[in-house]
Design a protein that fits this description.
By secondary structure, this protein is mainly beta. The protein has helices at about 45-55, 110-120; strands spanning about 1-15, 20-35, 60-65, 70-75, 80-90, 100-110, 125-140, 145-160, 170, 175.
Amino acid sequence: QLFLAGRLQTDSWEDEKTGEKRSKTKVVAQEMIFLDPKEKQHERPTGIAGRTLQLLNRSDVIGNLTRDPEMRTTTSGQNVLSLGVATNERWKDKATGEMKERTEFHTVVVWGELAKEAAQVLRKGNRVFVSGRVQTRSWETQAGVKRYTTEMVAETVSLLGVRAEGLDFSSGETGVKE
């Protein structure tokens, strides 16, 4: 078992055979910590190592909303809100000394009461902090082709840059976070 810290990156390309657009999301690791040495795999970690294991699938993103939130209701009556969040990474190219920039586009899914509350105040262009977990799901198209998408399932959504009551949300809590 290991702990990875880094950034999410989505690579896109066109399939040579079908001409369809394809993409793959990956974690570009910037830090890696082995949590469970092989000789102790049978033992349950305690202390900091035990608490760290609970955080293996965590993602935190600060970015701008790329579109207005889209609220839907599932057939079972559950609210689900879709957000598009753009983040930027800047670095200096070692070979040329030139500053480079890459924008990543993240799909965020917000469920339940948190979805209803966030939909009331979030708008395209807002700067947000989103915390949750990364999830990949699959489905089959009508043509029988299997598709995959990787998205962030939000547990906390905070509107940044505006100070007002009720603009920070997390599952199970509402109100301003200090």
